[in-house]
Amino acid sequence: MELSSQTCFAGSIYASRQHPPWVMLQTERDAEPDSKLSFNRYRTAKSGRFTRTSLLVQLTHFFAVVMDQFLLLQVRNSDDPMRQQEVSCFARALHCKPAQIGVFDLLSGFPTSADLEPYDVVLLGGSGDYSVAEGGPWLPPALAAMRELYDLNKPTFASCWGFQAMAKALGGEVVTDKNRAEIGAVEVHLTEAGRRDPLFAPLGDRFLAPMGHQDCVTKLPSQAVCLASSDKVANQAFCIPGKPIYCTQFHPELDRVALLQRLRAYPSYVEQISGKSIEEFSNDLKTTPQTDALLARFMQQLRTSPTAYR
User: Fold this and answer.
1) pTM for the whole structure
2) Are residues 87 and 185 in the same domain?
3) Fewer CB in 10 Å around end: N or C, the chain?
4) What is the H or E stretch that residue 82 is in?
């Protein structure tokens, strides 16, 4: 079909369990923003045509808004003020709406394969009052959930507590060590493997990352590859080759504002680790722009290389 000057591209995005997600570009004269998402307004003003960059950017945006469904596995008390904040933080970093993120409480049990099936990606974040190193009756089911994600090849991004839980579940070791506690914007450097990794290489050899932890992974699972380290903690990030699983000790879902919100909920924690009041700490806290883009890049990598982990 030949395209005339009156013909425009419209992108139709389909996502269902019967029809795996993909993008079809078709020609239409007057695409309406109903089930088809019109790209009319993204044409360049001068030529009336798309630039390749603008089209790819909008495809990425529409995929995030329309297709992706996330499941956040939380380990937080019902009265933890950070329960909803964590959802909002992941939504911001993933460029999606909070309504696209479902929540499963790991303190009440662990998700079955049927619970996981409707979701495209699983997320794990912080834990408030709970520790992988200290454990408890809730921990074995939670670790069973980590192993289920591994066995199912489920796309997963885990930060902080989730990083520690995934490491422990797959055979690593986690300890509480206040001498290696880190809080704030901490400098992290890539390992050789990290410099070769398509997700981590764009961070640059050294970057600042938002953190708040006193548990650390002292031994990675045998199948894991270390991607980053800090001066205090050797294992700051890992991936599982052949699996769509990335884990970070730091919090890529948090920007400076969100990190301060999180830490103000636990002011004594800040004082114990940094020796500063929350006000002093706030004045010194730097931004972390490199890690701010990590989760969106993770999703882009899943979309553009869907067979990379099979």
Assistant:
1) 0.79
2) yes
3) N
4) helix 82-94
